[in-house]
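Q: I have 440 residues here and want to know how they pack in 3D. Can you give me a structure?
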Amino acid sequence: MKTGFQTPDGKRVGVDDAFKDPRHPFRIAIICAMWLTGFDVECLATLYIDKPMKAHTLMQAVARANRVYPGKDCGVIVDYNGMLKSLREALAQYATGDDEGSDGGGIVAPIEELVAALAQAIEAAEKHLKGLGFDPARLMGATGFTRIQTLRDAVDALYASDEAKRRFEIMSRQVFIRFKALLMEPSALAYAERHDNIETLYKKLQEKRDTADVTELIKELHKIVNDAIRAQDVGEDHAEGLTMDLSRIDFAKLRDEFARKVKRKHAALQDIRDVVEKKIEQMLARNPTRMDYYKKYQEIIADYNREKDRVTVEETFAKLVELANNLDAEQKRAAEEGLTDDELALFDLLFKENISKADRERLKQASKALLASLQELLEPMQNWTQNTTTQAEVKIFILDTLWQSLPRPPFSDEETEALAGRVYDYVWQRNTSGQALVAA
């Protein structure tokens, strides 16, 4: 224990630092004295006391669980030896407040008030669900396939809009905080099932797809929109399943089939939103010139969330599928241009409208050469973004390279300097986000 815990990278972390870290598995400590009075752990929520304490020692011990921390509504003191009288005496001696005549009778919130606050939080969350068209009473006692189907209906209702989802998440967190403060209270068990149902729904909303492959989503929807999607001819891979070509989707047909056959439309819409968001995030990380796709996505979602003149969920679904198709085509553009993804990113940063076909080809070659030379320059540089000397070296290198490789005309001296700055910002951003340019 004196040497602490070993980390995956071979280093060691002290027991005190480990206990202060809410992400560390060291969660429970049985202590005698030291940590009771001088040890500050903001995330500590529960303190069990089974030894007699008085005066300032008791005050300091209680304060261990009274620190403010995100997601923590209050500290819980579990008293095994009846210290309330000692605590009141300590408060009378050491505490000052607006009411000097107070006898300290209000230092512990009555259990009845805490239970009532829990009930109020649960009722607020359930009322919100009812307002969205789902009766939470359907989950009470539900098991097996019935429970699974009911949970799907509840999640679909919560995906009616981003605001509906966010409000439920906020309400749920209040339920969790208040229930946690009553874990040792038997009277709170009457609300356990309703709490668990809300927690299950909350977790369902937090689930994220682990893939950004739009084709996989379309495969999942295939049973529903079979007539809307025309499959490619069967090839050698036919044994592995049906292959979808997003570019051949009949979007009008897809929207109609979605409207007729999909039961939980909001949940299905959220599925494709998760896919599109993930894909746009990945594409922007590699090529910032693709921001127009993100703006288009934001416009679609803003229209969907707008209460006035709100578009139908079927139209939103069709727009998102079409956007996903455009993203898929954009990701194929590098191969069509004869460039890698990183080369295409540099090409897009340097591109200028209305240039000749010959200058366009020269720009491609300049992009390839710039990427290769940058990879060679940066490979031996460790943490170059944290050193002003290496930063300057990279800036000058990019400017010199573009000065030599960009066709003149059509690129002027002023344009070359501006483009060098854009490329430097892109390289710096890639490095600091953990996606540094690496040679293949």
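Q: Anything worth noting?
A: The CA atoms of residues 228 and 254 lie 5 Å apart. The chain is about 55% helix and 5% strand.
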